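Quick log. Single chain, no ligands specified.
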Amino acid sequence: MLTSMHKVDTLEMHCKQHLFMVIER
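-> predicted structure:
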């Protein structure tokens, strides 16, 4: 379960990073 949560957290972080990049552009 912990691994699953970490996976989701990482995915969320990646999505936010991508969104931030898109907004910056």
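Residues 1-25 form one domain.
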